[in-house]
């Protein structure tokens, strides 16, 4: 059995948890540690699970008050990296052409 990276306890196979502050996502007995921006993207998409979120909305959410990058394509980079990390845990981010991103959950939450 896999152990939690923060507390060292065994992870039950049916547990789902996500701590935005630490970036630790636990799902299906597996875990992944996400950097701050990727954790924020996941949090935002989880809150809107099953609905499409536009790239510009994600950009505004990620870079509120921070030094903003010049282009919104940084969102694509964060989403791409996040996709690779969460897919083995049963979470899927799909792209809707010219619309945005949608989080779907294959695992039971």
TrEMBL record:
Residues 8-105 form the OmpR/PhoB-type domain. Pfam families: Trans_reg_C (PF00486). Residues 8-105 bind DNA. CDD domains: trans_reg_C. It comes from the Bacteria. InterPro entries: OmpR/PhoB-type_DNA-bd, Sig_transdc_resp-reg_C-effctor, WH-like_DNA-bd_sf. Keywords: DNA-binding. This is Winged helix-turn-helix domain-containing protein.
